Amino acid sequence: MAKCEPSGPGPADSDAQDPGRLVLGLETSCDESAASVVAGGRRVLSSVVASQVKDHAPFGGVVPELASRRHLENLAPVVRAALAEAGVGLGDLSGLAVTQGPGLIGALLVGLSLAKALAWSRGLPIVGVSHLEGHLAALDLCEEPPDYPLVALLVSGGHTSIFLVEEPGRQRELGQTVDDAAGEAFDKVAKLYGLGYPGGVVIDRLAKSGDPQAIALPRPRLHDGTLDFSFSGLKTAVVYFRRDHQGEPYRMEDLCASFQEAVVEVLVKKTLAAAQEHGVGRLALAGGVAANQRLRQAMSQAARENGLRLTLPPLDLCTDNAAMIAAAGCLHLRWGERLPLEADAISRLPLGGMLPVEPGPAARG
Ligand code: KG4
Ligand code: ZN
């Protein structure tokens, strides 16, 4: 397994012409207001995340309108904190990167508007970044970045996909969920039992003292020969289990462990199948659900048994952050892409989850 810790502070690169020299990234696609300064696409000088978990917890999920309002309040102070922590001012930056989609439209617009205003007022180059590509770019912020090509499992609250990543910034989606994302299934099962929000973290914790074989649950699409996933049927199986066993004693820990095991088994086996199909010897995990302890353990074991190298990002690079957006943005800035000031947020990205390329003044290398 590749050792993977966030990189420490370091001096910014000196090439004054390099738009990726010192990038401020902004992320507001869901319920985290985040800003980060990254040098040379690799060194995280600061990464500040203001979580809204407490605001949404009473509702058992993210309330879009509330998320937008909180971003409006939080984002400017978060940007100031990120600049201060990095020890730089706006005048020192070489470029800006902002999540353009996918995500909650109102939430995305807050980040996009502030990023555009900063870029315009300072005459800085700016790029829009796909949130999914950001999650993949988090791999390059690890202490030991992976070699490419690799097969990445991207599992979050909104997405569950397998990508073949040829090199940083060049990826192809091999499969994805046809309905719920894995994180969404965690959150919905937790909500069903009133376990709290976000559900993934709670289920992860409870499952540690549960028996993963206690309750038989389906492994959806495990043997369908594709690299696609489906988790809504598994969630429904839990709904039926709850209904059919009302009044009967069973341990919540066992339910959590059994549900988690079903999700993890499908995720691990399909990721392995993708690596085998494409003759790739490296694996990586990305996205919020990649923080799941059982998934990390099962994927590590599968990689070991099959002679594959695995990159496991540290937990703060799995969940939403802006360092990953700055890292992905650095590549696109260097490729000469630019975000037109009239560009809109894109709530749902086309198949593959990547933004359409906006060619800039420099040719893409
Ligand atoms: O990547 P992320 O922070 O935001 C999105 O892009 O969606 O992922 C959030 C998702 C939530 O569904 C949350 O329940 C899940 O990641 N999650 C976990 C764990 N930590 C966060 N799921 C399972 N186990 C965890 N430890
Ligand atoms: Zn995310």
Describe this structure in words.
With 365 residues, the chain is an alpha/beta fold. The protein contains eleven helices and ten strands. The strands form two sheets. It has a five-stranded mixed β-sheet with strand order 3-2-1-4-5, sandwiched between helices. Strands 8-7-6-9-10 form a five-stranded mixed β-sheet, with helices on both faces. It is globular and about 65 Å long. Bound molecules: 5'-O-[(R)-(carboxyoxy)(hydroxy)phosphoryl]adenosine and zinc ion (ZN).
Question: Keywords, please?
Answer:
alpha/beta, Nucleotidyltransferase, domain 5, 11 helices, globular, binds 5'-O-[(R)-(carboxyoxy)(hydroxy)phosphoryl]adenosine, binds zinc ion
Look up the CATH topology of the largest domain. Nucleotidyltransferase, domain 5
Number of domains: 2
CATH superfamily of the largest domain: ATPase, nucleotide binding domain
Mean pLDDT: 93
CATH architecture of the largest domain: 2-Layer Sandwich
Bound heterogens, unique: 5'-O-[(R)-(carboxyoxy)(hydroxy)phosphoryl]adenosine, zinc ion
Low-confidence stretches: 1-12, 359-365
